[in-house]
Design a protein that fits this description.
Two copies of one chain form a homodimer. The first copy, chain A, is an alpha/beta fold and about 450 residues long. Helices cover about 40% and strands about 15% of the residues of chain A. In chain A, the strands form four sheets. Chain A has a seven-stranded mixed sheet, with helices on both faces.
Chain lengths: ~450, ~450
């Protein structure tokens, strides 16, 4: 098909929308390492995980073999409310950069949660409802995940308790109000509601919080309340599975127009967006059918892939959760509060960590002022005001397009535009005022809390 | 086509998108009354209007005869960045209401301005650029129009000066920052920058401003600055013309699936959305081809149609602009500051006013607490957090759907969902906290400033 026929935005028809999630683990030769019980150092059993997560989600978490999983009809119906997400040809950005590269982005921001998080929120809420639970607990950072979960719970009439990282709670009061519109309760973390919150506050009285802290609190509440389970918006295998809808749709849209991607780029905090976007393409690579260059982009202030260690570590700051083998900065690592760009998690999806360790993808870290400059450049030509998180991917997509300008290569670049920045205007204001600074941790800042990790064969640090 | 094949969202393909605007005036037997020069009481000439507006826009303003006007290719390209807007079948809302009615909404919020305003902003900025101007001035209320114009100006590299109604400037600081991201200057109105601003502040020192005040200031700056013209986001004929893209797309989407609307509902402040949505359908009604029930929904606190007078009045509070014949509450009318729901303009599009006077459409006024209740009900089932303005239409769409439930009629209801409420969270907070109150002006509050309107034959008051 000739290039002229490629529209600005590719929308799949409803009957072209994927009806299955793709589980990349099925095609991985080296499977992601299992979660370990921190007491026994043995892989977490389904029964142990079932105290924290819904039964069906435990099954998905542990399933390394089934490649395609049917999406339940109720979830498909919900998806139809805000999906398909458009795959946009960035004609205006290409023109502005004067690059021979062809740039596409998968835009996940056209829903009230403002991001891709809704894809997994509805799945997790659905399985909780199906199990007859009263409600779910979770943590949220910038607030996208909490908003997404509150939307999903409201739709299914489930109770929803959100622990929100304190600095975001204070900086983003509007997010709270959106969650309230959807009926959720929102508590700043660390809080005095939980034992782990009290402990963290005693040790770090002025802390602005972190995702790791908030996870500890939400897990504690879920496991001590009748009829509740914990749900998580990133990191876990199950989340990558649900988020594979992003990649499945992207692939269907590219295939529809006979386009082949050369480079696929995504921002990486815990890995939900990146993992979801690249999954079906990585599957092709793993099966030897096609080759792609995958690039994970993370903040220089929270550089899990590029400066972390690949080791078993706690998923949370409070060290109440299982151990996951992943690239980690240490469960005690809390990024500087002046870092506005999201992606504040100390660890990384075990699945993506294994793929990275196996040399199947690359990673880059970028500084936040450069990220906001790329965000503004993008906004002015493409019209969409991007979330700081998504703008990490924009930055590297622009870098790669400019490389093509130098070399004359007509590469096809696809990146994930995970969401909108409407609730991040304080960060944009700091960027405009010139008060935004970059923060790069020293080596001494990294891996706090590593002393507490159990030593055992196979945990190399 | 059987109902089962109607998807949740109808997206036109790029090659199905309209390439012409439709000018409803061409099919009106009674044309809207012309703007009058307040000094001579004679219709404003093209030359006189050219001091305020770009030449091409003056032509469009005065053209009561040409039914279809080609959209310039550059504007079509910009439209492709964020259009087509989806026509959504509100399956979830229908189910929640348990109504036999079929509800559709045209959703214009999937762009960073958060509303339909971008449709006219790009057109007006394009003609200003084509005329070789340096920049444009405008007013903005809730901020959607200012954001839209700053996006369009940034794209075309035009300077953009925005006068923002003071209460919105203070209540919605994030909107300012979005406009700043797109390079616009934003001044709270009334300001001390202009003669008219100084005069209004002297008379009403504590005023929270109004659209009428802000228009006066923007017009003064445009007419006293070299290379600038004024642009307006609503009320004018030219704006309704550009906004007809909403109705043209809606009609194309309905036609594609063989759907015929019975009732078409839109919120009405100055008339930009309502006029744009209904134009092509009204054309069919005017030509006797089809019949529709049209309903304009306005706030009870600013009830131009339902309690205004159909008379010539000033378009602005400062009485520097031409006179328009319209339903008006008086150019000195300033809605209560506790009214959070937008649509604060004292007048109404002359075109819509004439159609209303001729009995071709209905109008209803609704109170804001009922509007926010409808907004929240909608958000919880349809996922989208609606703007307060748009929620006026939601309220009446729900009312009509519930009537169908009583009567058993399977009416097809189409309404305009003009935008998202992400920057209106203070209003939602007040609604949740129970501090939001309703405000209905007394008869004595209406028509202030009428004494200053020139008396002449044909201006019945």
């Amino acid at each position: 098909m000739s290039e002229k026929t490629i529209p600005y935005k590719i929308y799949l028809e409803e009957n072209e929308m994927p009806t299955q999630w793709y589980n990349v683990r099925a095609d991985m030769k080296n499977k992601p390492a299992p979660l370990l019980n921190p007491g026994t150092l043995q892989p977490m059993t389904a029964e142990e995980l079932g105290a924290v997560f819904c039964d069906e989600l435990v099954k998905q978490e542990l399933d390394n073999d089934t490649a395609y999983i049917d999406i339940p009809q109720e979830i498909l119906n919900f998806y139809k409310m805000y999906r398909p997400a458009p795959l946009v040809r960035a004609y205006c950005l290409e023109k502005k950069l004067d690059t021979p590269a062809k740039i596409y982005y998968k835009f996940e921001g056209n829903n009230t949660s403002g991001s891709h998080k809704l894809n997994s929120a509805i799945a997790q809420a659905y399985y909780a409802k199906k199990q007859g639970l009263k409600g779910v607990t979770t943590e949220t950072g910038a607030g996208q995940w909490g908003t997404a979960l509150s939307m999903a719970c409201s739709y299914l009439d489930l109770d929803c308790k959100v622990y929100m990282v304190k600095c975001s709670y204070e900086q983003k009061p509007f997010r709270r109000e959106v969650m309230r519109t959807y009926g959720a309760s929102v508590t700043p973390s660390p809080s005095m509601d939980t034992e782990v919150g009290k402990k963290i506050l005693a040790e770090h009285p002025g802390t602005s919080g972190s995702l790791g802290c908030a996870i500890s609190e939400a897990v504690e509440v879920a496991t001590t309340s009748e009829g509740y389970r914990y749900v998580l918006g990133s990191v876990l295998n199950q989340v990558l599975l649900h988020q594979s809808i992003i990649g499945m749709e992207t692939k269907a849209a590219l295939d529809k127009y006979g386009i082949t991607a050369d480079i696929i780029i995504g921002c990486a905090g815990g890995g939900s967006n990146l993992g979801g976007l690249i999954s079906p393409f990585m599957g092709e690579k793993l099966r030897g059918e096609k080759d792609y260059q995958f690039i994970a982009v993370e903040p220089a202030s929270c550089p899990s892939f590029t400066r972390g260690k690949f080791a078993y570590d706690f998923c949370d700051t409070g060290m109440v959760c299982p151990l996951a083998k992943m690239y980690t900065l240490g469960s005690g690592f809390i990024p500087s509060a002046n870092h506005a760009g999201g992606l504040r998690y100390h660890g990384m999806s075990s699945t993506l960590s294994q793929l990275y360790a196996d040399g199947l993808m690359e990673a880059r870290s970028v500084e936040q002022t450069a990220v906001f400059a790329a965000a503004e450049q993008f906004a002015r030509v493409e019209g969409i005001l991007p979330a700081p998180e998504s703008s990490h991917a924009i930055k590297v997509a622009i870098d790669e397009a400019l490389k093509c300008k130098e070399t004359g290569e007509e590469k096809t670049i696809v990146f994930g535009l995970t969401g909108t920045g409407y609730f991040d205007m304080y960060a944009y204001e700091a960027f405009h005022d010139g008060t935004m600074t970059d923060y790069i941790p020293t080596d001494a800042d990294l891996q706090p809390g590593f002393d507490a990790i159990p030593r055992f064969p196979g945990n190399m640090m």
